[in-house]
Amino acid sequence: MDFRGAHILSVKQFEKADVDRLFQVADSMEPYTNRVRISKALDGAILGNMFFEPSTRTRVSFGCAFNLLGGQVRETTDVKTSSISKGESLYDTARVISGYSDVIVMRHPKVGSVDEFAKASRVPVINGGDGPNEHPSQALLDLYTIKKELKANNRSIDGMRIAMVGDLKHGRTVHSLSQLLMLYDKINFTLITPKELRMPEKIVSELKAAGHDVLETEDMEAGLNDNDTVYLTRIQEERFTSKLEADIYRGRFRLNKAIYTRNCQPNTVIMHPLPRDSREDANELDNDLNQHPNLAIFRQTDNGVLVRMALFALILDVADKVDDSARDVGWYTEGRFS
Ligand code: ASP
Ligand code: CP
């Protein structure tokens, strides 16, 4: 695909070569995320960061990524404080914000809302999550992380084994990640969910039709066996009709040190898109794994900045110019990020 000026709405847009190009650019962003170099490649550009649903890392990391390329960020953080609460349409909002910005990131609770917004926008729009549908930039950073983590174990994505655990019905990150993994060969998916929260049938059939192995199970301990990666997810309470309904499933599948040690391979990488639900009745990923070397959750969040910088650099066509305007950061202190 041609990234220049493109909307990023779904992982279905990408071919393997696009992902390779994006990851190559993401690798080149390390001196900037590590604060060794500072770039002005997007000097004068403005990101409209429009979040109509709660977010910590997607909103902030897209903002940081834009800042690290020298651009400015303007944002909305929820519906209540935006004029959508006065009845303004997505069409009008998109027309207005695209007059103020050079690129927009948009998150909204309704499936298809970002596509609708993009149709009205005069500048490229990136889907920051549209309801339970998709979260493409998360899938890209997850895949980037998987690639790096597996490489450290001398493994590649082709032929990998991944267990996805939790609310696979509403979890947009697993919808996007599993569809992105379809670009690779012979992936083995173990989908561990309560039967009411299974991965949408359409995605499961597509995975099977593309030649991947899919096992759906409610038996977590057996399902955890023999995987390169275990990818946990939170029960998506906001997608249920009531908290009570979400409570039925909360806390049903948990990973802690004892369960990990008993069932996983010694090098199984532990991932989660975050936020993990750390309340006692949920706790799908226990704090007792915090010091475990295979816990990649904060490597995922760090990688998110690299991947999001790469997206901006390619969409706004400055990928080859990032270093031209760059200089060393005077205040960098070695070891700041250890
Ligand atoms: N932060 C991710 C998302 O917005 C995952 C989650 O909220 O559970 O989809
Ligand atoms: N992973 C993710 O999308 O996190 P936020 O919901 O905090 O943005």
Automatic annotation (TrEMBL):
Q: Which GO terms describe its molecular function?
A: amino acid binding; aspartate carbamoyltransferase activity
Q: Pathway, according to UniProt?
A: Pyrimidine metabolism; UMP biosynthesis via de novo pathway; (S)-dihydroorotate from bicarbonate: step 2/3
User: Which keywords accompany this UniProt record?
Assistant: Pyrimidine biosynthesis, Transferase
E.C. numbers: 2.1.3.2
Q: Which reaction does it catalyse?
A: carbamoyl phosphate + L-aspartate = N-carbamoyl-L-aspartate + phosphate + H(+)
Which GO cellular component term is one of those annotated? Answer: cytosol
What Gene3D superfamilies does the record point to?
Aspartate/ornithine carbamoyltransferase
- Aspartate/ornithine carbamoyltransferase Asp/Orn-binding domain mapped to chain residues: 158-314
Per UniProt, residues of the Aspartate/ornithine carbamoyltransferase carbamoyl-P binding domain are 7-147
- One family from Pfam that matches here is OTCace_N
Q: Give GO terms for biological process.
A: 'de novo' pyrimidine nucleobase biosynthetic process; 'de novo' UMP biosynthetic process; amino acid metabolic process
Q: Which family does it belong to?
A: Belongs to the aspartate/ornithine carbamoyltransferase superfamily. ATCase family.
Q: Which PANTHER family match?
A: ASPARTATE CARBAMOYLTRANSFERASE (PTHR45753:SF6), ORNITHINE CARBAMOYLTRANSFERASE, MITOCHONDRIAL (PTHR45753)
- Entry function: Catalyzes the condensation of carbamoyl phosphate and aspartate to form carbamoyl aspartate and inorganic phosphate, the committed step in the de novo pyrimidine nucleotide biosynthesis pathway.
Q: What is this protein called?
A: Aspartate carbamoyltransferase
Q: Which organism is it from?
A: SAR86 cluster bacterium
